[in-house]
Amino acid sequence: MQNNDADIESNLRMDNNVERAVKSQTADSTATTTTPAAVVPAGALSPASGSVVANANSTFWKNSGRRVPGRPSPKRELDKSVGAGVVGVGGRGAGPNTGMVSTFRDYQQSVSDAWDTGDDEFCIISSEAAAAAAVGAGGDAARISRQVSQTVALNVIETHSRSNQNHNASKPANSYGADLNSGSRNSSDETKEDRRSLPDSNENRSRLRNYPGRPQLQKISSNCQDSEYETKIEKFQVLLDSPQLDLVALKKISWSGVPRKMRAVSWRLLSKYLPPSSERRMAVLESKRQGYQDLRHNYFRVDSQDETQQDTYRQIHIDVPRMNPQIPLFQQQLVQEMFERVLFIWAIRHPASGYVQGINDLVTPFFIVFLQEALSPDTDLEKYDMSTLPEETRNIIEADSFWCLSKFLDCIQDNYIFAQLGIQEKVNQLKDLIQRIDVNLHRHLQTHGVDYLQFSFRWMNNLLTRELPLHCTIRLWDTYLAESDGFALFHLYVCAAFLLHWKEQLMQQNDFQGLMLLLQNLPTHNWSDRQINVLLAEAFRLKFTYADAPKHLETKS
């Protein structure tokens, strides 16, 4: 009897010891999992939990020091795996050394913040996290999120491009359509090359031009031949050498394009920056250029105490570096300072509108045209070092760009006044115009919830400079400057012709995302002067048909 009592008492003692040991281990594991992995001592964990933390520390997301939206929470996974290894209860499918969540409900909770932040969060990697990831994962983990995001975007673009090619290949195409199809194939080939190449090279960054929602990158180099205009040079020379210029005749021959070597002088005359009399031109040029230097001295004060001027300069200072970030010419400090002065002085001299985002893009064509005049034809403008140009020449380019911009914007200044009423009116006119020209396209856009303001505001605000390569914009402005009654009305019909040109591709898209992706990234990077000539001819036909029929611009009651 005494032996039995002793055995019972011994068993009770052993049970109490086991219970204390389990509680102690549970408390230790809980304290361990609630402590950040970065500060837990090496010996504070059990062997099973220690291996889990070691695995977690070898991954990029643990070293990043923050949770990633849309990914299972590392902390929750660590809690579950440590708990499973120590206590021995992991349940369904969670082993002691795995970072797996135990149930789908747990996984769903761990990724419930997938839409809390924008897609750009996946591309933002701190230098410390990148360095830690490079050490722990061989240097490739830090680029995983960037490569994945680029690949997804390029796959979407390639899919749209391939669908457009298949549709166009099923129909007989004229020479114009063949040019566009070949351009799409070239774009697809470039996309495949981009995916195989390194993401850090300047050349590859310049070719990644079709990200969803981003504007087309501008190119300075033209793929057209100046020989097409050689026959017109003599006509221009005769007109420009005449003592009294016939401005009407100059506009007539400029409407279909101006030769490169005659463009700078022709633009000054078409902008009415220079007088028709050849005797007065040099005197007027010197006076205007000196006048601009006086404006710089009197108005351009960065340290001004005027809050309005400070706000204007601050916005310009933010916008200018964003212009063409892939082109080295526009990233030079000298060039950016020239643009800042031109835009700031224009804003001060036009208080009714002031500076509006988008006007900075309108300086670029004038700047390039006058820079081309000062350099030899074979100069690579994209990589040209402006510091090698004499200061006097730089001042001439800056002054001429300012005065021509001022004349150019006079007929569209209502686009940039408060609430930009001019643009709103033109967007509504474009909507009514498309509704009368092509009701099927109009209904297709309306059915899928696409508002004209969502894509055509930029067309009106930036005059298609974001949709076309730079050399195409310059060719387009040859015609705009040659328009007898100003280009404000004609630009409406150019936008209508531009939208109608993409009708077939637009009708293939059956959702809002596909339509907006195409409208914001129209494949024009391979366009040349030939496509611009066809676009302008169609716009002229629309204007001739509808401009004298004002009922088409009236809003239906």
3D structure, described in words:
Mean pLDDT is 74; it is low at 29-66, 68-101, 113-144, 170-188 and 190-218. The chain is 62% helix and 0% strand. The longest helix has 32 residues, at 2-33. The chain contains 25 helices and no strands. Helix 15 (333-349) runs parallel beside helix 17. The protein is mostly helical and 557 residues long. The chain is globular, with a radius of gyration of 33 Å. It has helices at residues 2-33, 47-57, 60-63, 74-87, 104-110, 127-137, 144-169, 175-196, 202-207, 230-241, 247-254, 260-270, 278-299, 307-319, 333-349, 359-374, 391-409, 421-437, 439-447, 452-461, 470-482, 488-501, 503-508, 512-520, 529-546.
